[in-house]
Write a structure and sequence with these properties.
Layout lengths: L1 H17 L4 E4 L16 H6 L7 E5 L3 E5 L4 H8 L5 E4 L8 H14 E3 L5 E3 L10 E3 L7 H12 L4 E3 L4 H5 L12 E2 L2 H4 L3 H14 L4 E4 L2 H8 L1 E2 L12 E4 L4 E4 L7 H9 L2 E4 L16 E2 L8 H4 L16 H7 L3 H31 L4 H13 L4 E4 L4 E4 L23 E6 L1 E3 L2 E2 L2 E6 L5 H18 L3 E2 L5 H12 L10 E3 L8 E6 L13 E4 L2 E4 L3 E4 L2 E11 L2 E8 L17 H18 L5 H4 L8
Helix pairs in contact: 13-14, 15-16
Length: about 625
C-alpha cells in the first residue's frame, strides 16, 4: 500500500505542476458537510491511505503531511509509515496549523530543494510554478473556511484556487455517487408527519424574518421528510439537497433512487423533485429569497455561489434550525429507542455469556468476535445494520481510540487483560451505541485502577442534576474529575447525540471539554463515555446512551438529569471496590436491577446469570 500511495502522490505532483499549483489540500468532508462521507468523496483517504474519520491531507511539490486529532494518533502513525506523509498531531503545542506549515513549506521549496546527501541546491522545478498558489475543491468547504484560508495564505502572498478536483482526473477507479433506493420511515416510528415538520420549520423562519432554507445535511433531509436511505456506510441517509420556501419544497435527488411508492408519497406531501446537481444550476435569481437555517459557516461555498438568495439578505440565520428540532425526540421516537435498546441488550447479553468461555477455549480473534456480535444483533427484529464499524480492541489495541481490526492487525484474544468493545446497531425504531470494557482474565493493578476511575467518572455524570439549557461543556468535567486527580485525561469528547434510526453521531449538542454552546434540553439523547488510554498497554471506555429527562423545577428554574437507555451489564470484576462510594455502588446496583427487569423476559436462565443483580 505504501508504494501505491507514493505513486499517487507523485502523479498528483505532476498535476500540480500542470496547473501551476504549489500544493493541494484534501479534507475529510463532502459537499453535504457530513461526518460520514460516501466513498466517492473520500479523497483524503485515497491520497494518503489514512482511513480515520477525521483528518486533512496536504501535498506540496516536495512534502506531504496529514493532520488528525488525538483519537487517531496511533492509527495514523501506523498507516502513514512508509508513505510520503508525515503526521501532524492536532492540539499539540509543537504542531503548526495547516496554513502555517504551507507558508513555511511553500516559501522554502519554491527556491530550495535538498539532494540525497541533504545539501541545499537550486530548485529546478520552481520555474514551473507560475505563482505560489494552493488548490482546494471548493465544493467540500464552507465559505467561512475558504475565506479563512484565503486570508491566512494571502498574508504570505500565497493565492487560493477553489475550482479544481484532481481526484476527478487521477482517481481512475473512483466510486460513483451512490444511487441506492430511498424508503419511507413509517409514522409509527417517526412520530410526526413530514407536513407538520415542514410547517414548524416555516414558522421558525417567519419568526426569524427569513424566506427560505436550503438544507444540505443529509440526516436533516431524511428526518424532515420521514425518509431513509443507504447511500452512506452505516448511516440510513441519501445523497440530496432540499430547498424549502414559503410555498414550495424541492428535493434535489437522482430520480433512480425513488420508486413509485416514494414518488407518490412525495407528491402527497407537496414535495417537488428535481435532479441532483450543483445548486447553482437549479434556479435563476430570486430577489425575495434569503438563504438561512444552518448558518453560512455550515453551507458549502458551492451552495453559497447559487443565485437563489440576494447577498444583502444572506445571513447566518437560526443556527442549526433543523438539527435542533431533530435533536429533541418525540414520544414515538423515545418509545422506539427504548424498544431498540431492549433488543440490542438481549444481543449483548448473549454475546457476553458466550465470550469468556469462547476465549478460554482458544481461537477467537478481534474479527471473529465482531462477526459473532453482529450475527446476534442481526437476529433481532427491525435490525437494519450496524450504526458504525465495531471497535473490538484487545490489549494494546484498546489504546487506539477508533481502532478497527483488519486481517493485518487482527490478534487472538487470550484469557487475560482487557477487551474494549465499542459497537452499535441501526434498528428501524432506534439507533444504539454502547461500549463495554471486559476483563478476559487476570488484570494488572494499573488496568484495575484505570477501569475504576472510568467507571466512577461515568457514574458521576450519570448522577448529575443540571439546569435546563446549559451547555454540555459545563458538565464535561464531572466525568473527568476522578481521573484528573490521578493526573490522567482523555482527548475525545464525553458525549454526543444519537439519531432516531439516523446517524449515530448527531448534533448540535455535545458533552466535551472544548466549548460547544448548544444547550441541553429534555428529549435529547446523549452518550456518556469517559475513557483512559495508555499507548502500548490498554484502553478503557464505558459508554451508555442516555436520555435527558426532566428532574423537577425549583425557584431557580427547571432541572434535568440523564436516564440510561442502554441496557447491558457493566463488568464489575475489574473494580477496586475500596475506591467506590456507597452512592456509586447504589447506582450500579439499581442500574443492573433495571437491566435485569427489562431483559430477563427474553433471556434463558443461563443468560440471566450474566447480569450481576444484587439480591439484598
Amino acid at each position: 500500500m505504501q508504494e501505491v500511495i507514493s505513486n499517487r502522490v507523485n502523479t498528483l505532483r505532476q498535476y500540480l505542476r500542470r496547473n501551476g499549483l504549489a500544493a493541494f489540500i484534501f479534507p475529510s468532508t463532502d459537499p453535504h458537510q457530513g461526518e460520514y462521507v460516501p466513498e466517492h468523496w473520500q479523497t483524503r483517504r485515497w491520497i494518503s491511505g489514512f482511513d480515520g474519520s477525521a483528518g486533512t491531507a496536504v501535498v506540496t511539490l516536495q512534502d506531504a503531511a496529514l493532520w488528525t486529532d488525538s483519537r487517531y494518533f496511533i492509527a495514523a502513525e501506523e498507516q502513514l509509515q512508509g508513505t510520503p506523509f508525515r503526521l501532524m498531531r492536532e492540539g499539540q503545542p509543537e504542531t503548526p496549523s495547516i496554513c502555517e506549515w504551507l507558508v513555511q513549506t511553500i516559501h522554502n521549496s519554491q527556491f530550495i530543494i535538498h539532494n540525497e546527501s541533504g545539501k541545499a541546491m537550486a530548485n529546478p522545478q520552481s520555474s514551473m510554478v507560475n505563482e505560489k498558489t494552493v488548490g482546494i475543491d471548493g465544493s467540500l468547504y464552507t465559505s467561512e473556511d475558504i475565506e479563512e484560508l484565503r486570508t491566512e495564505l494571502g498574508k504570505a502572498g500565497i493565492g487560493l484556487r477553489t475550482d479544481l478536483d484532481p481526484a476527478e482526473e487521477l482517481w481512475t477507479d473512483r466510486p460513483p455517487i451512490p444511487k441506492n433506493k430511498v424508503e419511507i420511515q413509517p409514522l409509527e416510528f417517526a412520530g410526526e408527519t413530514a407536513q407538520s415538520k415542514i410547517e414548524r420549520v416555516r414558522q421558525a423562519l417567519r419568526e426569524q424574518k427569513a424566506d427560505c432554507i436550503f438544507i444540505s445535511q443529509l440526516d436533516n433531509i431524511a428526518w424532515l421528510l420521514n425518509l431513509r436511505g443507504s447511500d452512506v456506510h452505516c448511516n440510513p441517509v441519501f445523497v440530496s439537497y432540499l430547498l424549502l420556501t414559503p410555498n414550495d419544497v424541492t428535493l434535489f435527488i437522482d430520480s433512480d433512487k425513488l420508486d413509485e411508492s416514494v414518488n407518490a408519497y412525495l407528491q402527497s406531501i407537496g414535495v417537488k423533485v428535481k435532479p441532483y446537481r450543483p445548486i447553482s444550476k437549479t434556479s435563476g435569481p430570486s430577489p425575495n429569497l434569503s438563504l438561512v437555517g444552518r448558518g453560512v459557516d455550515t453551507i458549502s461555498a458551492a451552495e453559497l455561489s447559487a443565485p437563489l438568495p440576494t447577498r444583502e439578505r444572506l445571513g447566518e440565520g437560526p443556527e442549526g434550525l433543523v438539527s435542533s428540532m431533530k435533536s429533541i425526540k418525540n414520544a414515538a421516537e423515545i418509545t422506539g429507542f427504548r424498544r431498540a435498546m431492549v433488543r440490542d441488550g438481549v444481543a449483548m447479553v448473549r454475546f457476553l455469556r458466550w465470550l469468556k468461555p469462547a476465549v478460554e477455549a482458544g481461537g477467537e480473534t478481534e474479527i471473529s468476535i465482531d462477526r459473532k456480535l453482529t450475527a446476534l444483533r442481526a437476529e433481532q427484529a427491525l435490525y437494519r445494520g450496524l450504526s458504525f464499524d465495531t471497535i473490538a480492541a484487545y490489549g494494546p489495541h484498546g489504546a487506539i481510540v477508533h481502532y478497527e481490526a483488519t486481517p493485518e492487525t487482527d490478534v487472538r484474544l487470550e484469557p487475560r487483560g482487557l477487551l474494549l468493545l465499542d459497537s452499535g446497531a441501526q434498528y428501524q425504531d432506534g439507533t444504539t451505541d454502547i461500549t463495554r470494557t471486559i476483563a478476559l482474565g487476570p488484570l494488572t493493578d494499573e488496568e484495575r485502577l484505570d477501569y475504576t476511575l472510568v467507571l466512577k467518572g461515568h457514574i458521576r455524570l450519570a448522577l448529575t442534576r443540571f439546569p435546563d439549557g446549559i451547555s454540555g461543556t459545563q458538565i464535561d468535567a464531572l466525568a473527568r474529575y476522578f481521573m484528573w486527580q490521578h493526573g490522567i485525561n482523555y482527548g475525545h469528547g464525553t458525549g454526543h447525540g444519537v439519531g432516531s434510526y439516523l446517524c449515530v453521531h448527531e448534533g448540535p449538542h455535545q458533552i466535551r471539554h472544548t466549548w460547544k454552546p448548544a444547550p441541553l434540553h429534555a428529549g435529547m439523547t446523549v452518550t456518556n463515555e469517559p475513557g483512559i488510554y495508555r499507548a502500548g498497554k490498554h484502553g478503557v471506555r464505558i459508554e451508555n446512551t442516555m436520555l435527558i429527562v426532566p428532574d423537577g423545577e425549583t425557584e431557580f428554574g427547571r432541572f434535568l438529569r440523564l436516564e440510561p437507555l442502554t441496557l447491558c451489564p457493566i463488568d464489575l470484576t475489574p473494580v477496586l471496590w475500596d475506591m467506590m462510594t456507597p452512592e456509586e455502588m447504589d447506582y450500579i446496583n439499581k442500574y443492573h436491577k433495571r437491566v435485569y427487569d427489562e431483559l430477563s423476559p427474553y433471556l434463558t436462565e443461563e443468560e440471566k446469570k450474566t447480569i450481576p443483580v444484587n439480591e439484598e
